[in-house]
């Protein structure tokens, strides 16, 4: 019996498994990151960080139900110096993705420069899509001109790391074409799509109230219910992006078949958020086993056999 190969390659970064955590899911503290190090995940992504530590929004700020989750965490994190110190002190063969989410463009340049000085970080995932700290501002990924000017400045820096961007979901063809047109102008290594769907609301019918407290109960939606939007974004971006730019799929993964579907639409690797929070660290073993079992049934021996091969009817 041939061994099934679920290793992958994100623009030259080798992962022993195509399954990793999503930024934000149990990856903020030393304990959580140490657990991820010991797990079977193919890479580690850190919680999006700012220059200074942040406590985030008031609790309750996360809630999950059978098919989804809602959050308004408000970017709680221990500050970039903690993440760099922690990462520079570990020994691992897993690639490390540092997620950054500065509160201003200037803060992002500073965070990128700090990340460049680390010895262990392989890639920087710039979060252009946090839905929860806006205060009348638009999500950065929806401001096309700002993204273009931002990326121009980012690639003027002396970057030593792979640079990727995490995008919000887009809901029409033109937005994806326009964003892909911008991305294609830069030496970006990967995009991660999608972040949570902004401005969702989940309510408790018995208590007649919202389930989270910040932002009047509104927050980013994740989990099974967003899978179709993730697949649509991955599939469309893969047709418009330069072929050397890898796509990391994120959104609605809770089974091996969900992973298969993301890859079929064009993802080279996937991130697991809501289901990881629900199930804990063993999710990576379960998903890996389910993916391998499904690939056996399909007679695929490597994910390279079917990346982006969705039939267009
Ligand atoms: O911390 C958050 O509120 C948060 C972030 Br930075 C993000 O990128 N996506 C999300 O759903 N929540």
Write structural notes for this entry:
It is a single chain. This protein has one domain: Aldolase class I (TIM Barrel, Alpha-Beta Barrel). The chain has nine helices and 16 strands. The protein has helices spanning 30-38, 80-88, 105-116, 144-154, 173-183, 227-240, 256-264, 274-279, 283-298; strands at residues 8-10, 13-15, 19-21, 44-45, 62-65, 68-71, 96-100, 123-127, 162-167, 190-193, 197-201, 203-204, 209-210, 218-222, 246-250, 269-272. Helix 4 (144-154) packs parallel to helix 5 and helix 5 (173-183) packs across helix 6 (227-240). The protein is globular, with a radius of gyration of 18 Å. The model has no long low-confidence stretch (mean pLDDT 97). The chain binds ligand RRO. Ligand RRO is lined by residues 24, 48, 71-75, 101, 127, 129-132, 195-196, 220. Ligand RRO binds next to loops.
Which structural traits does this protein have?
binds ligand RRO, 313 residues, 8-stranded parallel beta sheet, TIM Barrel, 31% helix
